[in-house]
Write a structure and sequence with these properties.
This protein is an alpha+beta fold and 307 residues long. The chain has 7 helices and 19 strands. Bound molecules: zinc ion. The site of zinc ion (ZN) has 5 residues, from α1 and α6.
């Protein structure tokens, strides 16, 4: 049987929110089978639980934000991406402010934290959402067109294309494919950092956003070049970060997908609309588990070592 997974022990991190600039503490704790991933605002007079689900997403303008009972957590996508990458099903995330810390701007710090705490198998079957029919969201026309789509696939693979007309981005690959079956998430995807342009940062700061952003947690570009002294971590780091985000955004559905995801200029909003469209069409998916690990797709049958 392919089993659910949680942490072996708890682990903590301290950092600042990318947009709020606020100091925030995270405590990642083990959770029982079928709990899913639950954020808990422990700084409020009465702690409020926000279970992660496609319906809990309340804002997607700059990051993926979830809410419940008037409580909110912003920028969950990089932590969600790390959880998807390591196959974690159940987790409590205690948080002391309304934004997940940005840490190094990628999912690598979260991967390191979760792996250091250890991952254990639980006595319950892991459930997957198998896509049975194509589902697509399309917006805009011509130059402004963007889309995201899911197709049936025995496994989980993603392909993403961006189109940024900027000299530093043009010089890199703007399309990438990643197959979870490769087992290479931590190495090939997790280290890709978020990116921004100085002209946007100035405007965002004037509006009280990106207050925690800087060269130690983002790739920053002026009108022609990357300003980070060390350059890029991957030759195609920009589009790889978009895949990292998509993996996190799609994991908000609460179970790993068995599907081929493809997207052109998609983002948090379109990714969430795609999940909602999938869930609104019961004939387009089924929830499955694997009694015999050998019947699961490559990469899920022998996932990251549990210890
Ligand atoms: Zn991101």
């Amino acid at each position: 049987m392919i089993q659910q997974r949680t942490l072996k022990s708890l682990t903590r991190a301290v950092g600042v929110g990318l947009h709020s600039g606020q100091r925030v503490e995270l405590t990642l704790r083990p959770a029982a089978p079928d709990t899913g991933i639950v954020f808990r605002r422990v700084d409020l007079p009465e702690p409020v639980d926000i279970p992660v689900s496609a319906d809990s997403v309340s804002d997607t303008r700059l990051a993926s934000t979830i809410s419940a009972q008037g409580a909110t957590v912003h920028t969950i996508e990089h932590l969600m991406s790390a959880c998807a990458g390591l196959g974690l099903d159940n987790l409590y995330v205690d948080i002391t402010a309304e934004e997940v810390p940005i840490l190094d701007g990628s999912a690598a710090s979260f991967v390191y934290l979760l792996q250091s705490a250890g991952i254990v198998l639980q006595d319950a079957p892991k459930r997957f959402i198998r896509v049975l029919q194509p589902v697509e969201i399309r917006q805009g026309e011509g130059k402004n067109a963007k889309w995201a789509r899911l197709d049936p696939y025995h496994g989980y693979k993603l392909s993403f294309e961006i189109e940024f007309d900027h000299p530093a981005v043009n010089a890199t690959g703007q399309r990438v494919e990643f197959d979870f079956g490769s087992g290479q998430y931590a190495r090939e995807i997790a280290r890709a950092r978020t990116f921004g342009f100085t002209r946007d940062v100035e405007m965002m700061r004037a509006n009280g956003l990106a207050l925690g952003g800087g060269l130690d947690n983002a790739i920053v570009m002026d009108d022609v070049k990357v300003l980070n002294a060390d350059g890029l971590r991957y030759q195609d780091e920009f589009v790889k970060h978009k895949i990292l985000d998509a993996i996190g955004d799609l994991y908000i559905v609460g179970k790993p997908l068995l599907a081929a995801y493809s997207a052109y200029r998609s983002g948090h909003a379109l990714n969430n609309l795609l999940l909602r469209e999938l869930l609104s069409r019961p004939e387009a998916y089924e929830v499955v588990s694997f009694e015999q690990a050998a019947k699961a797709p490559r990469g899920f049958a022998e996932p990251v070592a549990a210890w």
